[in-house]
Amino acid sequence: MVSGVFHTSYESDMALRRTPAQKIRIALFILFILVFPFFANKYTLTLANQIAIATIGAIGLNILTGYTGQISLGQGGFMAVGAYTAGLLTVRLGMPWWLSIIIASLVTAVVGAIFGIPSLRLKGLYLAIATLAAQEIILWTVTHWKGLTGGVEALVVPDPRLFGLRLNADFNFYWLAWALAGITALVTLNLFRTHYGRAFIAIRDQDIAAEVMGVNLFRYKLLAFAISSFFVGVSGALLAHYRSIVTWERFTLDVSVLYLAMIIIGGMGSVSGSLFGASFMTLLPAFLTNMGRALRKVFPAINAIMPFIQEATFGLVIILFLILEPEGLKKLWEDIKDYFRLWPFSY
Length: 347
What we know:
Elements: H1 10-13, H2 20-35, H3 42-67, H4 75-93, H5 97-115, H6 125-144, H7 146-149, E1 155-156, E2 161-162, E3 165-166, H8 170-191, H9 195-205, H10 207-212, H11 217-243, E4 245-246, H12 253-266, H13 271-294, H14 302-324, H15 328-342
Antiparallel strand pairs: 1-4, 2-3
Helix pairs in contact: 3-8, 3-9, 3-11, 3-12, 3-13, 4-5, 4-6, 4-11, 5-11, 9-11, 12-13, 13-14
């Protein structure tokens, strides 16, 4: 009796979706993405757009931290580079919004590679401190270089338009954001089917052994920082054009910690985990806010303590996932799939 999944060709073995069940699930997900905006209201569309932007940024961070093992606390700073570059190119040079996103992403990749240079000598906590320094250096530059960024003043970005349509309207922006999120996911999945991606994973698992096998640590670590920062720059540039206002307060250390929480809760080294984590950490504050509004009449004082409740819940969720399910929501989803795939012989 045949048991398991078997492949009789290299094409089927190397396919992104190798079983009929996987193909059906991805088809249903794409169908949901296509149908959702026609039934969603403005509030849920806003949340969906935020999830798409966060997913791109989380995938970028996961490439560096989850796949390559390089801890980064500079996510907020790199997003600021992408956002301010896209905004300044549009405001000062009158550049088209789509071209500003591309150039902003490339600039962020270069900045990320520069701050990735210490990764050859540093690892673990020491590398985390180095990327934390990058976060602070970038924010200091943004707030003090008044001639370029305007300092602490907000940078107002003109509305992006395509064929006369205002793209930063929730419904219109939805298609752009989720299209770019899908492209980011597809590129990342294929990246780790190449020798570059395998080199990243080898560095994560054991960098000394990877170097013995011929992996150039300096080259591939810098490449990981550059690719990661490129996608982070995309998310920052999208945020600038979506909100039309760029301010340094959107890119503080809290944002870096938030994105790190996304990939921890969603699942390290996983594209789907990035989506799960981005969705969870975007919807959790919205759920707590709505719950606070619902309880306002019963507990009038809840408005004053809601920020503290959100911070406590945020920390508690991270701790619980680290203790109970270190592999994140991705592992829970895999367990559910395995249960139905193997039922009734789940053992």
